[in-house]
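In response to the reviewer comment on reproducibility (Comment 2.3), we provide here a single inverse folding case reported in full, input and output, so that an independent group could reproduce the run without further information from us. The structure tokens appear first.
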């Protein structure tokens, strides 16, 4: 295992992204249903830029980032699950756990399996003390994933350029 490996679960492998993941991630970011609670569908060029940001900024500057979720039986990259640094959430710096999978992978418990592994990695390997999830209150599947990995509703946050407050779910390291 090299240092780009994060974790494996019963059905998934989590690893750093590389630039060859562009096609697989375009399948995630070009689907309007997948992007419904986000900024809308993205182009292939945007996905290339996002991957470069993972490699050149997130992993190197923060020491963490979004990780590729690989289905072990097919070796397909089915989306991301990972960690994002937010310098100011209601006046505090926070680390968010976020997840996004291609639609054909939904409904199999994959997001819960990936998020649970990333949560353990954040608390035990990275020594992060607290994780949040920032979720649109209408995004029932995402809320369910957050709750299933032990996060609890804490408060609201009005992020810049948003039209309504998101909900913050949080979990502290024990
Ligand atoms: C959120 C997302 C990652 C979940 O992926 P997934 O692999 O299908 O998630 P899981 O199967 O692990 O769990 C989903 C849970 O939501 C539940 N769920 C699904 N649709 C639901 C709905 N409309 N209302 C209530 N619960 C719902 C499922 O039943 C499941 O819970 P259960 O295991 O207790 O039955 C996926 O839907 C996605 O990529 N959505 C678009 C991107 C996104 O919104 N990301 C989160 C941004 S905060």
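Designed residues, in position order:
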């Amino acid at each position: 295992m090299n240092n780009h490996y994060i974790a494996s679960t019963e059905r998934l492998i989590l690893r750093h992204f590389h630039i060859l993941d562009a096609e697989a991630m375009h399948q995630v970011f070009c689907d309007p249903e997948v992007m419904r609670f986000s900024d809308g569908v993205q182009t292939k060029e945007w996905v290339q830029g996002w991957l470069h940001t993972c490699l050149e900024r997130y992993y190197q500057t923060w020491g963490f980032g979004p990780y590729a979720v690989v289905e072990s039986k097919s070796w397909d990259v089915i989306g991301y699950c990972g960690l994002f640094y937010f310098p100011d959430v209601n006046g505090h710096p926070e680390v968010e756990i976020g997840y996004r999978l291609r639609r054909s992978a939904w409904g199999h418990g994959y997001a819960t399996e990936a998020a649970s592994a990333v949560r353990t990695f954040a608390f035990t390997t990275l020594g992060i003390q607290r994780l949040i999830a920032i979720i649109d209150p209408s995004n029932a599947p995402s809320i369910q994933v957050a709750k299933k990995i032990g996060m609890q509703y804490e408060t609201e946050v009005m992020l810049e350029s948003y039209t309504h407050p998101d909900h913050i779910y949080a979990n502290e390291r024990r």
